[in-house]
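Priority: medium. Attachment 1 of 2:
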């Protein structure tokens, strides 16, 4: 049932408090927030964001699980070197952090860019994945918000540098707060607080450079460069939950239906009225959904022979034959024919 006016999630006194910790891996400091005990849930944030993106749900999830929310390299309190910020490199970084922490298997939850990283992680390290939840995930097909396309251009990088000028950021923040009530419950209106939160991190030079490098690894002026549709069929042995905001202005909700069609056996939950941050718009519902997903599914069992047969049999085009969503099937097949896809 929809929650049209969700109440702010009340954090009980006994909820574990996520602790900010650091580990140095390959010479770079990686920040992460961790709380709780039990089966491990890995929360991966989106581009320009950080582990605080999960603050509305982290503590309550930690009542039942060990919940780890890293700051991706180049984000938050992690180091921001001149480095490889590709989706594949981020997946490697998740593997390395978990290995350092002595963790072998996780339920992976990825939001936006983090959804693409989560999918890449499952592709590269299937033996480490119990389940997969994709939240407004990037990397489905090339379609993406025009603002991100602009930001990937050279002029976009120069525009970010303007944030370092006196008064520019405060003026933008004031405009955003004024526009919030005007835009109301539209997708952009709902997302303004989170966009302002992310924008506040970008004036710092190393942060803006890392943001630009990360964005250009996955987006150019024509849209998303790295897409997952051509290998969605490989997720067949993994329990998959898809979560999308009905009014997502960044990654259109059509992408949710496409991924659902391309992943037979996946579950799909659309949050009515929600935008690009459903875990902020309705955290209580998000927590219930994630807990229910974990409780009702068995961890994936990685089998190399099964993977070998899937690769031999392959493709997503064959996998979607069982989908009931005819329109989504047509969209998937069209994207497979027209999109330029990563060969990672």
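Attachment 2 of 2:
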């Amino acid at each position: 049932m929809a929650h049209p006016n969700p109440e702010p999630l009340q954090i009980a006194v006994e909820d574990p408090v996520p602790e900010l910790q650091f580990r140095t891996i390959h010479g770079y400091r990686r920040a992460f927030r961790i709380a709780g005990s039990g089966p491990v849930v890995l929360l991966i944030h989106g581009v320009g964001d950080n582990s605080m993106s999960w603050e509305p749900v982290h503590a309550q999830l930690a009542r039942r699980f060990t919940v780890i929310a890293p700051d991706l390299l180049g984000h938050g309190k992690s180091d921001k070197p001149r480095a490889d910020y590709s989706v594949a490199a981020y997946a490697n970084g998740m593997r390395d952090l978990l290995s350092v922490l002595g963790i072998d298997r996780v339920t992976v939850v990825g939001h936006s860019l983090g959804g693409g990283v989560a999918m890449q992680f499952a592709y590269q390290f299937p033996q480490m994945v119990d389940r997969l939840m994709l939240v407004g995930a990037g990397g489905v097909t090339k379609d993406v918000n025009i603002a991100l396309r602009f930001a990937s251009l050279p002029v976009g990088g120069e525009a970010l540098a303007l944030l370092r000028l006196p008064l520019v950021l405060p003026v933008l923040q004031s405009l955003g707060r004024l526009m919030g009530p005007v835009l109301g419950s539209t997708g952009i209106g709902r997302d303004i607080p989170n966009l302002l939160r992310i924008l506040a991190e970008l004036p710092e030079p190393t942060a803006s450079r890392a943001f630009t490098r990360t964005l250009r690894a996955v987006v150019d002026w024509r849209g998303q460069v790295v897409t997952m549709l051509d290998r969605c069929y490989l997720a067949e042995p993994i329990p998959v939950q898809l979560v999308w905001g009905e009014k997502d202005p960044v990654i259109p909700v059509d992408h949710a239906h496409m991924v659902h069609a391309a992943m037979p056996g996946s579950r799909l939950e659309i949050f009515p009225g929600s935008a690009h941050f459903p875990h902020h718009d309705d955290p209580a519902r998000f927590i219930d959904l994630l807990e229910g997903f974990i409780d009702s599914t068995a961890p994936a069992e990685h089998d190399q022979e099964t993977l070998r047969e899937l690769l031999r049999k392959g493709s997503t085009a064959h996998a979607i034959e069982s989908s009931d969503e005819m329109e989504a099937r047509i969209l998937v097949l069209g994207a497979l024919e027209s999109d330029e896809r990563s060969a990672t």
